[in-house]
């Protein structure tokens, strides 16, 4: 990774991030990206089975023979180079682990999964069937599937990027069955006392005396009513297990996570804990102290199982994990797991899906997470701004809620759970991503996530089968048209993109290139006073001698605005200082009048400016 000349700035940014000069406050652990690198992380999420797929038939509920499926091998040097061009530091390969799917791999000793408890035909990547193996769909040679993934890890590293995969600690597939487990490892549930609804060392919760019943609904037909020998409305599970989202009925609702079963971490059915509590002062201690705390404790079996899984993948060369629905698992478990991981790999990248703002600080300080999704505050507000439901400056209220932990809050505009920007139900036009990405990426020290296809305006309109359009399907085999245009049958050169799609990708590249500026990596943010349009938002980022003035227009029409600068925001500049744009082609001059220093600017539709004086950019 290219190193910047701004070494003093990175030291300052790390000190700002840790808050180490302030007394009587929780320790702000330094995020991995501020330990050794002068850049903010950019996570590029790929849905692995869709990324390299070149088929365009897109038959609803289609088989992989009809609709195609991408492979590990599709991530060739050209693909990885294209991913790296977006400023990517970490590639999140979604759907790598072997999950339940409707396909026949019995020739390889893999049991068939019952479509009655599989969502879609390709299956949810969050219904893991074998934590010690990878999805056979992703291999050119199924018997060599682990070697093919190891080769992908190596290629990714050779392109200067790190590898993240999912760990789904809250639930596993109903038909969990590990073929790849190391010697001595027992499957989840293999040693459970199934006569009890709960036992501390059971991996699952049970409904004693009752058998599982497949949920039914008049609006849903398994596999879209296509025939399959196992699609008979029956799945053999006695006694029934609790469903992944915590539903306790032997027959879950059709809207429950019925394809999965909930993992037991020693939380009793009444919600009380059957394990040692982490003392409150540990929010101020580092991962080494957390690791030491757990060494003499007697912990539930599931804790050790997931620790061993995580360490297994670190040994394979994986650099970090994205944790699915982390808030459904106790904070104490995360202290145990993440400290164990950090003891083996101190710079491991640990990202958690947590949606309850009241739990953010606990999962960071006590749970030792590096990063959390900033959805409920930041993303939801930014989406409302893009949809014209809120004024642009309302983003500051959302941002103010996490000022103390902003470097730990991951920003995104799309991911596999969210609607595509270009979908009619979101914004209906990929150009709305231009100002939104500028604000999302530059407003704070938060890292950024990009979802494959976002940078070329994918609209998620394909009817894949399970679920509804507007989100690229994670359940079925499908082609992703806008992404396929950039992919160009494996050349990954963008030759089939439209002029507008190419321009959008170039714009994303330009935004991401600003992530190495010291003021972006570690600078403080202040709101700019903008008059003339409520559709324009402005802020400064300042670190040392570098000040950036960022303005973004969330409107389909050009907007002319005046920016009023405080003395602090004027920084070291003086009146008649010329400002230059690091992103587009704007230029303006600071002038002084009776009411102070100002500058004016006209921003075209969806346009932004990242202004500084030349000296600050030398």
Overall 3D geometry?
globular
Rounded radius of gyration (Å): 25 Å
How much helix, percentage-wise, in residues? 10-25%
Indicate the low-confidence ranges by residue numbers. Answer: 1-36
Distance between the termini: 21 Å
Structural class based on helices, strands and sheet pairing: alpha/beta
What is the total tally of β strands? 24
Strand content: 15-25%
Describe the biggest sheet? 8 strands, parallel, barrel
The side-by-side strand order for the widest beta sheet comes to 1-2-5-10-11-12-13-14
Quote the average pLDDT: 93
Write the layout of secondary structure elements.
Layout: H1 7-18, H2 33-36, E1 42-47, H3 48-51, H4 64-67, H5 77-84, E2 90-94, E3 97-99, E4 128-134, H6 145-158, E5 162-167, E6 171-173, E7 206-207, E8 240-241, E9 260-262, H7 287-294, H8 301-315, E10 320-323, H9 331-344, E11 349-352, H10 360-366, E12 371-373, H11 375-386, H12 395-400, E13 409-412, H13 433-442, E14 448-451, H14 481-487, H15 499-512, H16 518-522, E15 524-527, E16 529-531, E17 536-543, E18 546-553, E19 559-565, H17 567-570, E20 578-581, E21 587-589, E22 591-593, E23 596-603, E24 608-612
Parallel strand pairs: 1-2, 1-14, 2-5, 5-10, 10-11, 11-12, 12-13, 13-14
Antiparallel strand pairs: 3-4, 6-9, 7-8, 15-17, 16-19, 17-18, 18-24, 19-23, 20-21, 20-24, 22-23
Helix pairs in contact: 7-9, 8-9, 13-15
């Amino acid at each position: 990774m290219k190193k910047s000349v701004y070494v003093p700035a990175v030291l300052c940014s790390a000190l700002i991030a840790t808050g180490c000069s302030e007394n009587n406050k929780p320790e702000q652990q330094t995020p991995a990206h501020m330990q050794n690198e002068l850049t903010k992380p950019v996570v590029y999420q790929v849905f692995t089975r869709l990324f390299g797929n070149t088929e365009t038939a897109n038959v609803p509920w289609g088989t992989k023979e009809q609709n195609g499926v991408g492979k590990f091998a599709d991530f060739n040097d050209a693909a990885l180079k294209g991913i790296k061009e977006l400023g990517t530091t970490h590639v999140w390969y979604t759907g790598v682990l072997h999950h339940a799917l409707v396909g026949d791999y019995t020739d390889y000793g893999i049991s068939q999964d019952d479509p009655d408890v599989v969502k879609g035909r390709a299956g949810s990547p969050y219904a893991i069937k074998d934590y010690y193996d990878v999805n056979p769909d992703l291999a050119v040679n199924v018997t060599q599937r682990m070697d093919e993934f190891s080769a992908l890890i190596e290629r990714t590293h050779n392109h200067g990027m790190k590898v993240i995969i999912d760990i789904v600690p809250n639930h596993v597939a109903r038909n969990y069955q590990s073929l790849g487990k190391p010697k001595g490892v027992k499957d989840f549930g293999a040693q459970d006392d199934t006569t009890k609804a709960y036992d501390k060392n059971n991996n699952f919760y049970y409904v004693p005396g009752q058998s599982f019943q497949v949920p039914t609904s008049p609006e849903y037909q398994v596999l879209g009513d296509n025939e399959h020998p196992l699609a008979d409305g029956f799945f053999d599970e006695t006694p029934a297990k609790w469903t992944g989202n915590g539903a306790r009925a032997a027959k879950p609702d059709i809207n429950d996570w019925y394809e999965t079963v909930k993992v037991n971490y020693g939380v009793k059915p009444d919600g009380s804990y059957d394990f040692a509590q982490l003392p409150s002062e540990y929010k101020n201690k580092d991962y080494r102290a957390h690791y030491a705390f757990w060494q003499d404790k007697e912990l539930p079996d599931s804790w050790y199982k997931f620790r061993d899984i995580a360490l297994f993948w670190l040994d394979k060369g994986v650099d970090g994990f994205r944790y699915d629905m982390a808030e459904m698992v106790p904070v104490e478990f995360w202290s145990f797991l993440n400290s164990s991981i950090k003891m083996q790999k101190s710079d491991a990248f640990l990202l958690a899906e947590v949606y309850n703002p009241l739990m953010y600080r606990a999962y960071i300080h006590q749970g030792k997470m590096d990063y959390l999704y900033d959805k409920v505050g930041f993303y939801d507000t930014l989406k409302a701004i893009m949809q014209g439901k809120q004024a642009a400056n309302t983003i500051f209220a959302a941002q103010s809620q996490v000022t103390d932990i902003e470097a730990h809050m991951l920003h995104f505009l799309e991911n596999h759970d969210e609607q595509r920007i270009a979908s009619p139900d979101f914004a209906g036009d990929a150009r709305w991503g231009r100002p939104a990405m500028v604000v999302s990426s530059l407003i704070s020290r938060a890292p950024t996530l990009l979802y494959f296809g976002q940078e070329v305006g994918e609209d998620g309109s394909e009817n894949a089968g399970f679920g509804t359009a507007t989100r690229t399907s994670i359940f079925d085999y499908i082609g992703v048209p806008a992404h396929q245009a950039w992919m160009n049958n494996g050349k990954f050169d963008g030759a089939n993109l439209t002029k507008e799609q190419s321009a959008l990708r170039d714009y994303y590249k330009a935004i991401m290139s600003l992530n190495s500026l010291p003021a972006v990596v570690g600078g403080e943010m202040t709101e700019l006073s903008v008059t003339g349009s409520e559709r324009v938002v402005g802020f400064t980022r300042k670190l040392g001698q570098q000040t950036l003035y960022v303005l973004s227009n969330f409107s389909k029409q050009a907007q002319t605005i005046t920016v009023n600068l405080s003395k602090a925001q004027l920084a070291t500049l003086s009146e008649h200082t010329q400002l230059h744009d690091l992103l587009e082609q704007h230029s303006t001059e600071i002038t002084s009048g009776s009411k102070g220093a100002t500058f004016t600017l006209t921003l075209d539709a969806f346009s932004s400016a990242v202004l500084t004086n030349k000296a600050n950019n030398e």
